[in-house]
Every structure is written in C-alpha cells, then in structure tokens.
Amino acid sequence: MNIYSHDKLEKSMQDTPTNALIRLIYISDINTADSSVFAHIQHHSESFNKENHIAGFLCNNNESFLQCLEGTKEVVSSLMQRIFKDKNHKDVDVVFSKKISGYSFTDWRMHSINLNDSNWKKFSNHTQLTDISPFKPQHWPHWFVDHFIESVKTIDYSNLDKDLITFDKLGYSDVQKTLASNNVLFYIFLSVLISSAVAILLFRYNVIA
C-alpha cells in the first residue's frame, strides 16, 4: 500500500465503517529545520489523543517521520487530512491501514522516539532489529515496517532501564541531555580557566594593579 493523498486514503477505506477502529502507519520526510516542531507535535498530541482516544507512537531522526496511529476511522482520517497539508511534512505516504479489533497501544500518550544513528544502534539492539540500520523507513519493505511496529509494541516505557533509550517529551534521549549538560559545564570551566590565565598575565606584566 502506498497512498500519497487524503482522497486516496478515503477511497481505500470506503468500505470501513466510520466508527470502526483502525491502525494506520505513515512515513514522511521532515520538511523543517525548526526543532520546536517536535515539541509542538508532542504538546498537541497529548491533549488531542486523550480527547479522541488515539494511541500510537512517533519515531523520527533528522530526516524522516514514522508514525503509527490507532483510533476510529473518522478521527484518524481527519488527523491524516491535516498531516497531508502540514508543511512540516513532505512526501507523506500511508504504507499501512486496516481495521483492527482492539488497541495494541494502551497508553494514549504519543511516545516520541528520536532514532538518530547512535540511538538507533541502542534501540535496534534492544528490539533485535540489528539487521536493519540506520533508521530509514522510506527504504524499508512494508513487511519490515509491520515488523518494526510489532517490535516497538514490546517496549515497556514505564519500566525502561536507564542504560537503554528513554526519551523526554521533545524526543531527546537521556544520553543526549547528559552530553549537553556536560558540554555546558565544560564551557563554563573553560571560560573560568581562560579568564584566570588572562588575569595572571595582566598582573605579571603590570597591566593592571
């Protein structure tokens, strides 16, 4: 299945009742360099998903989105209509859509997983997907997308060990946040060291009293 427009999506689901529960997976290219888009998606999805009984997860790296949505056909179709029009997405492709008997993801929060190259290695090891690397869903066969979804469903986010991948609402890993924090401390230390060295030299050569 490759569906590149909302009209084609509606046509493909025309025999599915409006209130039927469906699972839909789409892949798209990221069409923005603004990192705040991830915070916006997360903030919007938390309230929208809870109100509309949508479950699933969102994966991304610097190039691609892969999102799995579970909810009624009416609500998911309406959401996809907005995603097809969203300028943050490019080349949206619905690769999977079918009626399901129940939710696979019982937590309505839309977990956001950043799968850049370093995170993908840890994630793929944890989910036994080491044969496929890196995270490039546009090049995956459809059977592997389905396999990937099944693997993600096995993750218990509420009890994920810290040495594996845990993510905050912006999709950044604890490892990345720690590195960022360490960099800040390093630059503060470096600034103090340079300032001290300059002050010593100025005193030595009587530039300052």
From TrEMBL:
Keywords linked to the UniProt accession: Membrane, Transmembrane, Transmembrane helix
BLUF domain mapped to chain residues: 21-111
SMART domains associated with the record: BLUF
SUPFAM superfamilies, sorted: Acylphosphatase/BLUF domain-like (SSF54975)
UniProt KW Membrane keyword: yes
Superkingdom per UniProt: Bacteria
Gene3D superfamilies for this protein: 3.30.70.100
Transmembrane helix recorded as keyword: yes
TM stretches of this protein: 184-203
Protein name: BLUF domain-containing protein
Source organism (scientific name): Psychrobacter alimentarius
